[in-house]
Amino acid sequence: MNDAWLKPALLGIDRPQAISMDGPVGEVLAALATQDDAALGYSQQVGVLAACQRAAMRLAAPVPSPAPAAPDTAVLPADHRWSPLLKTLFSGGQPSPWGRRVRHEACLQLAAQGRHLPVASLHHALEAGARSIALRPHLRAVLGERGRWLAACNPDWAFAVDASVAAEGTDAAELERAWQEGSAEVRLQAFQQLRAQDAEQARTRLQESLKTLSARERVDFITALQPQLSDADAELLRPLLKDRSREVRQLVGPMLARLPAAPHAQYLQAQMQTLLQEQRGGLLAGKAWVLAAPDAAQPEWADAAIDPKRPNGESLGERAWWLYQLARQLPLAWWEQTLQQSPTQLLEWARSTDWYDALLRAWLERVDASTPQWVEALIGVDTLRARLGELMALLPSDQRERHWPANARELHEHRLLGDVLGSTAPGQTLSEAYSLRLAPSLGAQLGDEVLRYDYYLRDVLLELLAVLHPTALAEVRVAEAPANATDAMLDCVQQAHQLLALRQALNSHL
Prior knowledge:
- 53% of the residues lie in helices and 2% in strands.
- By secondary structure, the chain is mainly α.
- The chain has a two-stranded antiparallel sheet with strand order 1-2.
- Helix 5 (97-112) runs parallel beside helix 26, helix 6 packs across helix 8 (144-151) and helix 26 (455-467) runs parallel beside helix 27 (487-506).
- It is globular.
- The two termini are 49 Å apart.
């Protein structure tokens, strides 16, 4: 639509005037121009043009129709008992915390049965995926042919167009197409798939593309190297120690430090060895390690991703800042092997030094799911209480649940509800054994008087119900709200019944 209508509107409308247009739209515009109020008639015509533009019509030109979607026999039929549930679950705007979790669960249940979302739910599900990056991996698996066809019609749904890229068995031609034509997210998926299939080719592709990638993309692609990191990656990573992005430098340093043969790893170890001294105590005292921090910045730090200049607002002192940057790059196993101590012993030793804050911060950055002993040791550090959920999430479910009481009231009293939910990722549930012990007290707590004024507790209890293992749902008996219950309490009980029924239906056989 051009702007020819704008000039008359600016000059003023003192007599009936039609905006010239061919076809049915032109007939509507001509009819509106016949009104007695010329300005009103002209304004209504402009409104019609705006509506047509919003509807993506090319005025006075034929609109090509896309080719029909390919048949999809795995689509859930409209008359299936899950179909209305799925439409309700994905419709609406921003869902509640428990609604977000059940969306993930619904996608996983559909994928487990080899079924795709019903047609009536596709639009709502794609909108949900556009708003939630976390939902997309689970959603892609259940969109099917029609869902991807529909996504191709709307740029906002581009995340779903190349959903097949991440699937097992994707051939080389599809990966190449995704790399050349896909969005940044799809290109990353293609790279991850290529890395799993041919590490050397993936390395070459990344090397050729580094100069064209943004800092954020460089971080994402380099992170994708970590699961299969090997000495062969050192040549690609070494120049990135001087990357213009600080985030890239901070990522690459620890990766190279994991490769014992890499010069960077050997340099870091030598530097830290000079700061550690082993002292022999008395006859019964045994050996003790003494740690110092660097006295001055070294010129070669520029090649080792160590920033000699302490940032403004940095809580660590200058020497502690240097020590932290050295320590954060070394693998946790190096500390265990060098000092011959367990993670718990190392934390006790660190407290005895002048550099506890620097070491604790460095070790926190290195801990992950592959180091459960370190996670367990860090959970016991009082100053890390705010990060307890984050640490718990790194443990296998049976280990993390040993730290929690199996009673909803006690979880609330000990302020552990946030930790339970924070360590249970979308799509995950608590273990069957723990859920069965927790279910009776959760049902009773949902009708408790304490919910009268505590909106946060109402929300987290409902979310806790959303992460119970499916086999424990039958053991939940939602207590009735008291006679003097507020509207908020009644709504909480109603939502609990709705959530319970929804999850039981989704976890029943198709």
